[in-house]
Design a protein that fits this description.
This protein has 133 residues and is an alpha+beta fold. The chain has helices at residues 3-10, 20-28, 68-80, 86-89, 96-102, 115-132; strands spanning 29-37, 50-57. The model has no long low-confidence stretch (mean pLDDT 96).
């Protein structure tokens, strides 16, 4: 794959490359960038560097999201406006009490949260929706 895409796939929380793609793939797979492949290895040679990435599916017992659709919704909302804080991007999904209950600072930006943080938020949102009926 194009190296730029692979870097986004394997990016860690807090890095510039970390985003929606990173979270959603890392929820399901153990990811690893193996090595780069120069343009000259292909005919015709592309104008970009390529990388080889390994995706190892995680066992079902390691997938803790109660509702994966809600997880996708939360991640999409959080990264929808990257420069805004979670307080703003998740408004309507998670209120101040929810952030407090989860121990997550609502003043952070989306790229600061780990995959586990997103799963916790999604599970909280799913539980609230279930209670609301």
């Amino acid at each position: 794959l194009q190296k730029e895409g692979v870097m986004r796939m394997v990016a860690e929380a807090g890095s510039d490359d970390y985003g929606r793609l990173s979270v959603m793939l890392q929820y399901r797979f153990r990811m690893g960038r193996l090595f780069d492949v120069p343009p000259g290895a292909f005919r015709p040679a592309p104008k970009v560097m390529s990388s080889i990435v390994r995706l190892i599916p995680l066992p079902a017992e390691q997938l803790h999201a109660d509702d994966e659709e809600v997880l996708a919704e939360v991640v999409a909302a959080a990264f929808g406006q990257r420069r805004k804080t979670l307080r703003n991007t998740l408004n309507g999904l998670l209120d101040a009490a929810g952030f407090d209950a989860l121990g997550i600072d609502s003043g952070l930006r989306a790229e600061r949260l780990t995959v586990d943080d997103y799963v916790a938020i999604a599970n909280h949102v799913a539980a609230q929706r279930k209670r609301a009926g």
